[in-house]
Write the structure tokens for this entry.
Amino acid sequence: MASLITCPHCGVRPKEEFAIRGDASLVRPAPSASDEAWHDYVYVRANPRGRTVEHWHHVAGCRRFLVVERDTVTHEVYSVVDGAAAAREAQR
Amino acid sequence: MRYSAFSIVRNALSGNLNWKPQWRQPQPKSHYDVIIVGGGGHGLATAYYLAKEFGVKNVAVLEKGYLGSGNVGRNTTIVRSNYMLPGNEPFYEFSMKLWEGLEQDLNYNVMLSQRGVIMLYHSDGQRDAYVRRGNAMWMEGVSAELIEREQLKKMIPFLNYDHARYPILGGLLQRRAGTARHDAVAWGYARGADQHGVDIIEHCEVTGIRRENGVVTGVETSKGFIGCGKLALAAAGNSSRVGEMADLKLPLESHVLQAFVTEGLKPCIDHVIVYGGGHFYISQSDKGGLVFGAEIDGYSSYAQRGNLATAEHVMEEGVSMIPGLSRVRVLRAWGGVMDMSMDGSPIIDRTSIDNLYLNCGWCYGGFKATPASGYCFAHLIARNDTHPVARALRLDRFARGYAVDEAGAGPQPNLH
């Protein structure tokens, strides 16, 4: 894992300040969605080898949720954006 | 190649030039009754028990690297059966019993050392939890002992008993638990399987799973297409990738776990000691090196290496438990890719495809389970029926609401 993460709010920070929540590519189903859709959302993971997007929480910094795109083999970090901004972008 | 005192003398007299390889290096046949993907401990044990106990001898084990290059050679060699949940404990105890007879069964020295595993507690609440766990073990017929502080001081005098934050108040001891030589386990199973006619094919990577009419007909590999009657996946950290070839959606994330070994010391640590203030575990190998590790690094990864911050955290835990460790020099560190499941427990089950079988989700507890995993998986493949001790370890348990969550952490793989 890269040692330094560039938080969009706090700048370059050590990665120990962050907690990883997990896969950010999952889309939360509607409350009335089928059991199977909820099962897939809660339990099933694509577990990619290569590029992945994750929710990271900047626990020891701005305490914002971020979306980090990185590589699970090389550990290179491609981008870090604010979670709310990423969600707004996705809705557009 | 069988070993005996006589064979050692005979080979010594002939200059040790006549030892034979322990298993053949066969070219793959065009078709096998069963193909096992993954030549780690679990895959090899599965092949061994399939051939020996269940009479299925036309079997191939496909390994993409060399034999024992994955997690079976990367763990901290601990074997134990001190689990709490009813879905887990009978399975791990079955494994412990197989461990106890393994050297005789394989005619191979796996250096099983039942030196005892002690898990320390540091508060009254943690003591209660360990009393509960010990009682749960007794209910499954497994002995456990609660060792109080004064007794523990005599047993293991060098611990930091008066640590300000995590004073050591005692521990839960399983005397039958201990360690085994991990490489020897892989080699012993490989030789045993080979003797029963199993083809172990190294440097043969599976690149695709061919299906016709909803059943698997064979696998595409780096050595060409190989047909099979049944396909069994035991690919550990790469389970999601292999499963993807058959459109399986798995409740797994691959994470990296590190382990460490120090320079060789004279015998000083007689047990496997597990720290309750964090999750640090340590034992001493027969060569004298202290072998230790702790939690996974916490981020999903397919790289077989970890990061320094976790290494530092592990060492800090160790020194806070055994201050004397601070003067010991670490020789090596390495990482393995763990197939972390969503409840921290493994999966041994059939899949939605009739002749495709799945063995995965071992998190970072796969080594101790090697014999039982192989036996139960072989039972499932041969008879199409779940072994009684593996009944809770089904793939559909999440959908049914029967997760086996030993840590109580929920569907968050990096917390198990």
The CA atoms of residues 155 and 273 of chain B lie 12 Å apart. Chain B touches chain A at residues 238, 240-241, 249-254, 297-303, 307-309, 342, 398-399, 411-414 (CB under 8 Å).
